[in-house]
Every structure is written in structure tokens, then in C-alpha cells.
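=== Structure Prediction Worksheet ===
Name of assembly: unnamed complex
Input type: mixed (protein and possibly other molecules)
Chain count: two
Listed entries:
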Amino acid sequence: MKGTAVSPGIAIGKVFLLKKIEVESLQKNSDDPQKELAILETALKKSALELEKLIQASGEKLGETDAGIFQAHLMILQDDEFVQTVRDHIQAEKLCAAYAVVKTAEDFYIQFMQIEDEYIRERAADVKDVGMRVIKSILGTGTGLEAMPDGSVIVAQELSPSDTASMDSQKVCGIITESGGRTSHAAIIARNLGIPAIVGAGGITEQVETGTFIVFNGESGEIFIQPDGELVKKYIEMKAVKEKHKKLLMQFKDKKTFTHDNHQVELYANIASQNDTSAALENGAQGVGLFRTEFLYMNRDNEPSEEEQFVIYKKVLSDMKSKPVIIRTLDIGGDKNVPYLGLEKEDNPFLGFRAIRICLEKKEMFKKQLRAILRASIFGRARIMFPMISCLEELMTAKEIISECMQELDKRSIEYDRSIQIGIMIEVPSAAVISDILAKECDFFSIGTNDLIQYTTAVDRMNPKIAELYNQYNPAVLRLIKTVIENGHKEKIDVGMCGEAAGDEIMAYLLLGLGLDEFSMSPPCILNIRRLFSLADMNEAVNDAQTVLTMKDAREIKKFLEERNKKISER
Amino acid sequence: MKTMDILLQNETGLHARPASEFVKLAKSFEAKITLVKDGKEYNGKSILNVLGMGAGKGTKIELRAEGEDEETALEKLSELVKSFSE
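=== Predicted Assembly ===
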């Protein structure tokens, strides 16, 4: 069986099945409303006490965000309308206390889900969670999580904040849920706590019971129920190897990034939402090299307001403390479905109306994002980065729009970082070729290899038929990268990279030798690259890069670099 | 009973933090606080009701206060709403 892997690691243990309460099987009616009302009052008091305890405990254990969730829960629990509606159901319709709570929570849930506001929708889930807490208290069942034995793999339909807060994370070796995606509560908590997890494992709660032996891989998403001895042995070995490696890597967590001969570079994280900062910090990122802002604009009916964006940028900047955060302005095109932008379907979306081209045209929308970033800039170290720049005019126009935004903020007497750094992505070959001109007009470059390779080699990276032609070792691509780094350095600006190549250990070594200053990658790659660099020698890397540049084809380059990588790793 | 019409001008309307601040202040008065949107009444002392209104930016609402301290209630609550857009 397979699910979506959301937190890496291997789990081997016994299932602890978190049973959900079957709402359908609850008794509906009661002849004694007075008794039901009394049951309700007791349950409400007990639930309030539990929540107060959770507020205190989660402040210490999981951080302030969780305490905030439970404060919201307490407010709902003590809400006049909530309590009164439950009482009305009990008295007027002669419902049982538990059933009346279910009905009330469900009604508010439906009402909230109809409102187009992310915050209110989140509260909808909270109303349900509070309802379940009261019902459990009425039925006296509890989550049972308190009685969970050591080394358990929690299997559940889904995990609510109440569930995760009442579990002892020391006893959990893995989490599997039926619902949810990468950003579900269970996934985020699991990553934060470093517990392997899989979500979206449909039907798993029907296939196991508490005590069932289970093995799963939090990287591939594979789940094995009651596996045979051979497989268990294999996974125990795999787990031991991974844990040893992880321990080795953890020594590099709070260190800067130096080569063996003390050349220093920066390793940053790529993030795609405000929830990814903890993963970045856990993995020792020295900053954020690419904060994708597309998620703010997608899966909704209207563009995000300045205020909404400000709140999110501010959170990311303050979560990253004083580390730099490069915020990339909207990079979206005709291949993504953003109905309210009214983009037409194009025959060649990757060569079409996308990214900065859209932003320069839809100026008011662009300005909202820029003002939000500027306003947030005083809460950390923000940098602004424009995607898909292909000529100088685009950069100059975009910079002009930033000046307009600054003037508007000045008029509103709103503070912002006046010396905010402005940079561009180099992902279009034309930009790489004129990088000497562009370098005079911006504060940093970040090379986007995914698109740079695709545009340079005229290979659609999504087309499997020509996948072999999409090659990061293509000498033409390498020459462009070299040109960009040299031109950046001539103007004394930093040159980074935020494509896949920066986190690939074989490529990263070559980039080090070419003089790249900053490497931005998905968080789990960071420590591995930091360790590799600590074993490498800068002089050697520079020589190796020069050798590579004399080579004629990708295969030869790849072979050479793989051999070098092997030698260095064994040091 | 005292009433007053208010236009929500801040970005988030009566969502998120503004909603809970409104409810907290409303609860400090003796008077019954009611919000009316599109002819429907909502309990101003209930966070679930206030959020459930879905009153975003640009919404017009009527604020009602009924009870001994209705005058102060109306004054303070309308001041609070105005302060959101500052």
C-alpha cells in the first residue's frame, strides 16, 4: 500500500489505531432533558479545564502557534451562541447531549465553510475539533492517546491539533493518516518533531488494528502491513544506516558553511509557504534563497489583499529571525489555473505571458505584493527577487514600480527597509548573456537552473520523450552559469542559485568551483551539502571546474564529477 | 435601544483579530449587542456569530445596543471598528 510521504524516515512498530467516534451510532433522543443538560454542563467544564492545560503545555512544547489554536478553541467552547444552541437542541428537540453537540458543531462548520476567507475556514475545523472534545468528554472515551505504549505507529483518519497535543511524541515512531496533504496539521507536526509520516493512505484504518505490526518508509510513501522477516530485516538495516548518517549530519546543523581550506559560502532553503520555515531552520538553513509566493494566489477566487500578504511575509521574516529571506514576486503563467487573472490558454505557455511579464501588465496587483513585502521588511531581512527577467527594460520598469510603492508608503508614513536588496533570477538565456549589463542594475543574481536548462537546450522538461536531452551537465549550460557568476562578481554582487542543481551534491561541487556564493535548495539537502563542502578543498574545486569547462560533452563531465564526488566523500 | 450604521473599511473586515477584539469588548457591557447584516441578526458577544456573518471589507452593518449602558457600548464599539482601518 502507498500514501503520500510527508516526513522522512523509516518507522517500524506496532499500530496504535486512533478510533474516530461514529457519529451515526450515537443515541439521538432522550426523555430526560434535565439529565442531558447536566451531562452537558459537566462535559463543558471538563473540556475547558483540558484546554486551559493544553494552552499552558503547548506554549512550552510546540510553540506559540499551538497555544493560539487552543485559545481559539476555548473561546468557541465558552461562546454564548454555541452553548445556547446546544441547550436549545436538547430542550426543544429532546436530543441527547452528545448528539446535540454534533449537530451544533456541524451547522457552524457548514456556515463557516461557505465564507470565502481562509481564516474563517480554519475556524470551521476548530469548531469541529471543539465539538469532538466535548463529545469525547460526554462519552468518557478520551482519545486513548494517553495510554499509548512506546514505539507506536499512530494510524488515524486524521489528526487534529487536540490529538497531536495530547500525544507523547517520545512514544511515537511514525504517523499514518487517511486524509490530508503535505500541509495538513499532521504533516507539519510530524516534520517539526522529526517523526516519519505518511498521509493520504486511504482505507488504512480498515486494514489494521491496534497492535498490528507495521513498517513504512517516510520517503517513498510505501507501507507494509504484517511484513515478512526478510523485509523487516532489510528495513531495520536501512533505518540504522539512515540514523547514523543523520547523526553525522546533525553536527553541521548550527555551523556556517566552510570548505576544508576555509572558503565560505551560504546554504539557503527554498520554501513554498509560511509553514516551511521550521523545516528550513531544523535543517540548518542560513536563510531563505527562494520564497515562492504562488501559493498565495492559487486555489482561490480573488487576488490576495496587501494586508493578507503582509501578514504572511511578516510571519516568515520574523520566523527566520535575522536571516535573509529572498521573496520572489509572483511567478505564474498560462499553464496554471488562476481563474481571476483571466489568462488565456496559450500554445506555448513557457514562452508566453507569465511571471514578471504578467506583473508589469497587471501593475496594481504587482504593487499590492511589493507594498506588502516592503511593509514586512522591517521585521527581518527581506530581499525582493523578480523572476523571468529577459532584458534590461523589464528590470528597470520593475524597479520603477518599487520606487512608486516606496513613495506611496512614505505618504502613508509607513516604515520599510529603505536599503532593501533587489535582485533577479537568471533563468532566461538572454539574461545570462547580458548579465554584465544587468549586474550594474541590481543587488544580486539567483540562477534558476530548471528553466535555464530548458530554455538553453530547447527541451521541455516535462516531456518524457526528450528527457535525456534535459541535462544539467550540458556544456552550454555550464558556460552560461560561469558567465553569470563572473559578471556578477565583476560588479561585486552575490550570485546564488535556487534550482534543483544547487542541492545535488555532484553539481554543487562544480558550482562551488565556479565561484557560486549562495546555494538554495530544498531543506533536507542542506546538511548533506554542508558536510560535503567541509571535506572539499576550494583550490581543488576551482581546478576541477576549469577542467570541466574544457570537456566536450555532458557524459564525460558527469563521469568526471561523479568520480571526484566519490573521492571527496570518502575523506 | 440605540443603533448606528457602520461601514467596514479595514482590509480584513470583521475577521480574525478584529472579530475577537470586537467580541471581547462587547462582552464587557451589560447591554445586549446585536449586529445586523442583510436583515439578519447576529449576537455581537459570540465569536461564532461574528465570524459567521462573513463581514469582509466594504460590508455595511447595523450595530445595536440595548440595555443600561447602551450609549457607552455603542460609542466604544464603533470607535473600535474605526480604529481597525487606521
